[in-house]
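Bit of a strange request maybe. I'm writing a small parser for structure token strings and I need a real example to test against, not something I typed by hand. Could someone generate the tokens for this chain?
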Amino acid sequence: MNPFHYHRPKTLAEAQMLFRDAESPRFIAGGMTVLPSMKARLLDAENLIDLSKIEALQGIEARSGRLRIGASTTHATIANSAVVRQMLPALATLAGGIADRHVRNRGTLGGSLANNDPAADYPAAALALDAQIVTSERTIAAADFFTGLFETALTEAEIITAVDFSLPDRAAYTKHRHPASGYAIVGVFAARFGQHWQLTLTGSSAYGAIRLMAFEKQLVKGATPDGLDGVDIDDLPILEDPSFPIAYRRHLIKLMAKQAVAMTIDDVSI
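Reply from user aminoacidic:
Good idea to test on real output. This should exercise your parser:
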């Protein structure tokens, strides 16, 4: 790792000023992606600006029928939050299953969304729950936020400040974990709003988190979880990976989707 200067601003304005004035700056929150990348010399930054201590970027609250979570809120905090467990327990379950304890205690919601790793869990929840990504400059719908692998609509100096999640009638998240990292090989988030369904996939798509519209259409028509077996998903853009072949991932996608849908129907999770 090359030498760098470390900054810990206390306000959003101070963080933005540091970014504007510093040479080769980089924002970090939990550092779960930036620091390993710097150690591997895949990323170089002369100035790291740590957002984790900015109070305005933390907290969990109900707001106008939605759930707002500050961008610097850790996975562990979300998983253990009484508010999240009551209003959106599927999101608490998701957060509690991310990677390992170290990552859950350091990693943040905003950092995960900003990095948009194809194996990350939160992007699937954001898409399925019509989340609004609130930044230092604007509000971006989740459907417009994710633009490709490790790519988002954020500009270089833009900071995620909070995420607003809509509240479904029922929701559930299921995933097949990588045996070493705990990240998703296949993850499916199912959300039901009345008769409308939104299912999203993470961990397997060549474009990051995506909607599983073929499943959604069948569910609207009244398909049961087992009825999803007959849905053709051969056109899904699946990641090429010798360790987890495409045919295997397709099998897991159907299995995870069936489990997630069954959980919402059986009221196992909200």
